[in-house]
Amino acid sequence: MTDSSERGQVSVTFLGAFSRKLIVNTLFNFLGRFWSFAATILLTPFIWNHLTPGEFGVWVLLSAVFLESYTLLDLGFGAAFVKYISAFHAHEDYERINKALFSGMVFYLLLGALVIGIGLSLRELVFVFFNISSAETAYLFALVACAVGNLGVMFLSVFRGVQRMDKSNAIEIFVSIVNAIGVVVVLSAGWGLSGLAVNALVSAVTLLIASWLSVKRAMPRISIGFHFDGPLLREMFRYGAQILVSRLGSIVSFRLDKLIVARYLGLATVPFYEFSARLSGMVRAVPLLMMSALIPATSELGARNDKEKIIQTYLMTSRYVALVAVGLVAFVALEAEPILRLWLGTGVERSVLLVQILIIGYGANVLAGPASQTGAGVGHPEFDMRSTILLTLLTPILGIALVREFGVAGVAAGTSIALCIAAVYLLASFHHNYLEKSVGQMLRNVHLRPLLAGVLAILAVMVFHRAVPSLKALSEIRYLIPVSLALDFAVFVPVYMLFLIVVRQVTPTDRRNFLGLMNFGFEFVRHPFREWIKIYR
User: Fold this and answer.
1) pLDDT recorded at residue 346
2) Distances (CA, A) of 338 to 39, 46, 68, 150, 289
3) What is the CA radius of gyration of the chain?
4) Global pTM?
5) 415 is a domain residue
6) 367 and 447 Cβ atoms separated by less than 8 Å
7) Do the domain assignments include residue 450?
8) What confidence category does residue 14 fall into, taking pLDDT thresholds of 50, 70 and 90?
9) Per the structure, how many domains does the chain have?
10) How distant is the alpha carbon of residue 47 from its chain centre?
């Protein structure tokens, strides 16, 4: 982080008790997502080996449209729920929390019925459009799982709103384990697509039950008695309506490209695009975890009218997200081929170029994440909303235009270009309207140096390969690929970090932050219960 004497800016460092809560919440989010990544890495090749390419393509579509998107199909209410719960909890207003909870439950029950009804009425049209056959049972259970999952996520969001990420992630890990076991059982039994959809419904029901019981146990003052509040629901919808645009943009950016591939190139091509999207998505998710606690945290600060600390938190998060995100994107783009071979074996070479294209756009999206999350947390989701409108328009236009000329690589390029343009627009809008500062200084001081460091580190690894040509043999043998990756990583990271230190992107303040974080981590490991109580009391 930059000292004030170095750049003429306010020194940004960890901010006492507030930062301890932010760090611990981020840590728990990391643990939850780490397990999710591990489950995805292990289950993807297992599912791939138990389904035909066409069946895998159908499962990707069902997952993209329903199972992975139910939190995006809630008309923006989910994000509003987290924000308002956070604000009410800051003032210990449990009466309004109960009203929000009951009103949300009514809304999600009606939404679930609507999703199932519309989904069933459009089934034949969907099947004909994507040339799907013999998947009626899987389609039905996926619809029901989507409706039930929304209710479970709402109860889980109570913990996110009160910044108890330890609780929310423990539940998600438990449900993920249940889902993983179910996937292995149903596929081993030969139940195929229908078994996967039934298992998804079981997991959704498990989430619903576990999240409600945990909320009730942790906060006895919360109840779901008849506490309907129409004005509060309308107020939340006004906020959520702007979030809705962002949610729809997420569907367009991270789901529609798969539908374009399925429509224009066939279901058998979808798995190769999905593999690249999953790997790029996992890389994107790691730095996103660094800001996963920003919305409830900045919402709390906003309720206390502490704009200075909001800006400090935003700047600190932006710098560290850029440092991690750019390094990850550069390394994975360089090592896409051995990583895919290690993960899925041979036969997926078509996904290498797709990873290298998609990961650029996903990385740009991450760099704009702190602005998006901070804006939503302080009650200004319009910045993200406008950026997402642009993204929603560009993604299908570019994808469809480029798929005709360049095939599946064109779809990836269209998505990546749209993400980059929307990210630049979001940063410019947030800085101009909220920070009232030019985004140019942000791009130079926060993003440019890590980008240069990433290019230099890639060149260093390439020189290393030329100097030691025998390394190529390691990446050709699957069980030796981790050795090859470790050697490249050992070259990449020192070059990347040394450049950032030389150009003063990593400063003494950053080192103090890092040492403080390490000391805090050691204390948390040595006395977890004491630190837990201290932070969450």
Assistant:
1) 85
2) 20, 19, 27, 37, 25
3) 23
4) 0.73
5) yes
6) yes
7) no
8) very low
9) 1
10) 22
b/e code 353-386 from CB counts within 10 Å (16+ = b): bbbbbbbbbbbbbbbbbbbbbbbbbbebbbbbbb
Residues 6+ apart with CB under 8 A from 494: none
**Side chain identity at residue 442, one-letter code:** M
* 193's tokens: 């697509």
- Find the length of the chain: 537
The domain of 427 spans: 20-438
The first and second tokens of residue 140, run together, are: 């039905």
pLDDT greater than 50 at residue 56: yes
**How far out from the chain centre does Cα 119 lie?**
26
User: Can you tell me whether residue 291 is helix, strand or coil?
Assistant: coil
Nearest to 22 by CA among 367, 296, 307, 323: 296
Query: What is the 8-class DSSP label of residue 267?
Result: G
* Residue keyed to tokens 């900045």: 298
**Dihedral Cα 231, 306, 366, 429, nearest 10 deg:** 80
How far apart are the C-alpha atoms of 300 and 24, rounded to whole Å? 16
- Choose among 456, 465, 455: nearest CA to 485: 465
Using the predicted structure, report yes or no on whether residue 304 has a pLDDT greater than 80.
Answer: no
Report yes or no on 141 lying in a domain.
yes
Torsional sign, CA 80, 81, 85, 86: negative
How far apart, in whole angstroms, are the C-alpha atoms of residue 87 and residue 89? 5
CA distances from residue 183 to 101, 197, 464 in whole angstroms, order as listed: 32, 9, 42
Look at residue 371 and tell me if it is in a domain.
Answer: yes
**Rounded to whole angstroms, how far apart are CA atoms 204 and 162?**
23
| pLDDT single digits (tens) 324-356 | 899 999 999 999 999 999 999 888 889 999 999
